[in-house]
Design goal:
The complex is a heterodimer. Chain A is α+β, with helices and mostly antiparallel strands. Helix content of chain A is 26%, strand content 26%. In chain B, 34% of the residues lie in helices and 14% in strands. Classes of the chains: A alpha+beta, B alpha+beta. Chain A: InterPro entries: Diverse_Substr_Oxidored, FAD-bd_PCMH, FAD-bd_PCMH-like_sf, FAD-bd_PCMH_sub2, Mopterin_DH_FAD-bd.
Chain lengths: 264, 152
């Protein structure tokens, strides 16, 4: 929809352009920003004109630019494991995937955000550009910690998500995925992932069922009872029209056990 | 602000675009191309589907400013000397009721058949999942897509 309160539009070409003035917001793909009124927004700063390469493979792993679209992520030969499953969990049509960005989905940080699930599942780290200091105050934070709640992040005003970094060690991991919703094609009530790294470490992640990602780590694949106990003890299960907290806890336990068995 | 873009193969300029304007508004109200329809305005219905640099997007969710320097194809650009085979198939099968969703279905169908000339029914349904018909005329639409595929 048209954003009637917006009276300014800037195309960012350099880092200095990303300094936000009063009322300005970063524009990524725009698929959420343009889907509802933004009454407190009076200016847009287009991040997509920064010209960042969508995906970069290095010895350290995979760097996904914040402006990488979901379509670009899925089409890339170096796409990480679970990318397709997590993108499908978004329930968006291909017309959305064409322009919606990975970084935008992470920054929006809804509990059911598929790109948060992907990054949390793969120990993804967010590279955050600080608004001042010429890069001296930039920092990295695990995406599982950046997403602090259903629609909230730890990002401070003016900070810009530059990239999402997936470490090389997890790219060769064995992975498994489950999703459940109240309707067959409904919005995610719970998204569960599991990963066993080449060294044997096992990581299970709950998203959508808890307000922020729940990461369960084990030095080796745990037993069923230990995993279930940790799932039951996790905090942040919530109730909304898409599912009750008790249901979310229960299905998380059932589906993570399926994943555990699949990875055994 | 002014935006310069290529629409249906023709270089165009749009003046007085206001900064929060969507590409859909710019196409319909500034460039005189009302084929793309304004319905849900939130990316649910697909009636505003156009191609941006060859890929289908919901024009209601794209900032007009982001179309600067890019190529846009609207439903008006589908037909050449005659109807595009996809359009012809929709006519033959009567895949139109009120017609409001039709431009979006045409664009999504053409995109599908350009990528996959012989899609299966599940693939058709998947490709059209972002397009809604409130008349619920889906069976005729599916017939039309199958016909368009067979006629290519």
């Amino acid at each position: 929809m048209d954003l009637n309160t917006v009276t300014g539009y800037r195309r960012a070409r350099t880092r200095a352009d990303l300094a936000l003035g009063p009322g300005e917001r970063i524009l990524g793909g725009g698929t959420w920003l343009y889907s509802e009124p933004q009454l407190d927004t009076t200016g847009l700063v287009d991040l997509t004109t920064m010209g960042w390469a969508p995906l970069t493979r290095t010895d350290e792993g995979l760097s996904i630019a914040a402006t990488c679209t979901i379509a670009e992520l899925l089409a890339h030969p170096d796409r990480p494991p679970l990318a397709v499953e997590c993108a499908n969990a978004l329930l968006a049509s291909s017309t959305i995937w064409t322009v919606a960005t990975v970084g935008g989905n992470v920054c929006r940080a809804f509990a059911a955000a598929g790109m948060v699930a992907l990054c949390a599942a793969l120990d993804g780290v967010a590279l955050v550009w600080a608004p001042s200091g010429g890069g001296r105050h930039d920092y990295r934070i695990p995406v599982a910690e950046l997403a602090t709640g259903n629609g909230t992040t730890s990002l401070a005003p003016g900070e810009v998500l530059r990239a999402l970094e997936i470490p090389a060690r997890v790219l060769a991991a064995r992975t498994a995925f489950r999703k459940i919703a109240l309707a067959e094609l409904g919005r995610s009530g719970a998204v569960l992932t599991g990963r066993v790294d080449p060294g044997g470490e096992a990581v299970f992640v709950i998203t959508a069922a808890t307000a922020s990602p729940t990461v369960l780590r084990y030095p080796a694949l745990p037993g069923a009872a230990a995993l279930r106990a940790d799932v039951d003890a996790a905090v942040g299960y919530y109730t909304d029209p898409l599912g009750s907290a008790d249901w979310r806890r229960q299905v998380s336990g059932v589906l993570l056990e399926e994943i555990r068995q699949e990875l055994a | 602000m002014r935006i310069e873009l290529t629409v249906n193969g023709v270089a165009r300029e749009a003046d007085d675009v206001w900064e929060g304007e969507s590409l859909l508004y710019a196409l319909r109200e500034r460039l005189g191309l009302p084929g793309s329809k304004n319905a849900c305005e939130q990316g649910e219905c697909g009636s505003c589907t156009v191609y941006l640099d060859g890929a289908p997007v919901c024009a209601c969710l794209v900032a007009a400013g982001q179309a600067q320097g890019r190529e846009v194809t609207t439903v008006e650009g589908l037909a050449g000397d005659g109807l595009d085979p996809v359009q012809q198939a929709f006519v033959e099968k009567g895949a139109v009721q009120c017609g409001f969703c039709t431009p979006g279905f045409l664009m999504s169908t053409k995109d599908l058949l350009d990528r996959d000339p012989a899609p299966s029914d599940p693939e058709i349904r998947e490709a059209l999942a972002g397009n809604l018909c409130r008349c619920t005329g889906y069976e005729k639409i599916l017939d039309a897509v199958r016909t368009a595929a067979a006629n290519r």
